[in-house]
Task: structure prediction
Amino acid sequence: MTTDTYYANGNEVRLFEQAYHRRLPVMLTGPTGCGKTRLVEHMGVLLRRPVVTISCHDDLTSSDLVGRFMVTGGDVVWTDGPLTRAVKDGAICYLDEVVEARHDSLAILHSLTDHRRSLYLDRAGEVVEAPEDFMLVCSYNPAYRSSLKELKPSFRQRFVTLPMNYLPPDREADVVVAEAGIEAASARRLVACATAIRTADEAFHFEPPSTRVLVTAAHLIAAGATELDAAEACILAPLSTDGAISDGLREVAAASLAAADNSSTPH
Ligand SMILES: Nc1ncnc2c1ncn2[C@@H]1O[C@H](COP(=O)(O)OP(=O)(O)OP(=O)(O)O)[C@@H](O)[C@H]1O
Ligand SMILES: [Mg+2]
Result:
């Protein structure tokens, strides 16, 4: 199984490539499990660049990104952080869940994401100019956005933004088949189940089931689980801890699995 097969959902591959060739940073937005990480891995292969992933969190400091002086064997030496190494290597640097990082940690990226394309290592007294093949890619899930966690316009407007979402049902079923090797009819039933919950979700306001959970359910099915058990464990159970909501969704899921079953069975 490869981790670089990516099923496109529009013009995002082309736009990503065009951004790369004009040395523009890219921002991917979209719900969990819709293919953001997979797209970046795919583009790394396509553009023949290594991908350096940095997961952002609120303790992440600019020193964690660019580097710091460290004591080794009695000497104090500057040690590049992952961002600096990625810049020097001309890699694709992928900052995952960038909205989790504090604004002051992200400020270091400003000079890298405008015409300067340079990283200012103030403490080391060094300026690192990004080589042509360096690219910065960030991602976040707008559903988690709150007034406390919001990217500044001065940050957002530096990026080519590619909004991502789940694939259309047929394509999503293709992904499930390709990833887990189950039968197409079974994959279509899982997708129908997710689609029904995503539609019902408008009333519930939780993060809808992703392509990721469909792939996980498909792996259980490939290992011998029934579709209902797999849907329960992988699609429904992670959605909500509220029993009443789960009961309602269980009916939606069972009905959609059965309906998809009937529609794919010749009479
Ligand atoms: N377009 C796609 N092409 C191929 N596989 C996909 C696609 N979208 C989702 N998948 C499958 O779903 C899984 C989850 O996708 P991925 O890790 O890219 O999600 P993500 O958007 O990065 O989620 P998160 O925000 O939680 O990190 C992948 O490992 C893959 O199996
Ligand atoms: Mg991801």
